[in-house]
Amino acid sequence: MFVASLMREKRKALGLTQKKLAVNIGAFSDQFVSNLERGADPFPPKYLRSVGDALKIDKSEMLEAYLSDEREKFDRAWGEPEF
Q1: Closest to 40 measured CA to CA, from 55, 57, 61, 18
Q2: Which CATH fold would you assign to the domain 2-78?
Q3: Domain spans, the chain
Q4: Residue 62: exposed, middle, or buried by beta-carbon count in 10 A (0-12, 13-18, 19+)?
Q5: What angle is formed at CA 8 by the lines to CA 76 and CA 83, rounded to 5 degrees?
Q6: Distance between CA atoms of 20 and 42, rounded to whole angstroms?
Q7: How far from the centroid of its chain's Cα atoms is residue 36's Cα?
Q8: What is the CA radius of gyration of the chain?
């Protein structure tokens, strides 16, 4: 849940509501943002750029968070301990 944590942290630091972020990224509802921040839904890659732009997250930081999430999923599927 690296992207989820990063999203929540940056959104709060900028003083944005979930509703305002949803509007800024072209999402259909604030519930969508809530689900992403809680890790209830997987993060759709098509929102990486819009979330990064809206929350002033640079490309390398967003990529690192996204790949960390993917690594966790891979490790669980593979059955290897996390590093």
Answers
A1: 18
A2: 434 Repressor (Amino-terminal Domain) (1.10.260)
A3: 2-78
A4: buried
A5: 30
A6: 20
A7: 6
A8: 13
Q: Which amino acid, residue 74?
A: F
Q: In sequence order, what DSSP letters do the residues of 27-44 get, joined into one string?
A: -S-HHHHHHHHHTSSPPP
Q: Check: CB of residue 14 under 8 Å from CB of residue 54.
A: no
Closest CA to 2 of 54, 49, 70: 70
Arithmetic mean of pLDDT over the chain: 94
Q: What is the pTM of this model?
A: 0.86
Q: Is the pLDDT of residue 75 over 80?
A: yes
In this structure, are residues 7 and 36 in contact, taking their beta carbons and an 8 Å threshold?
Answer: yes
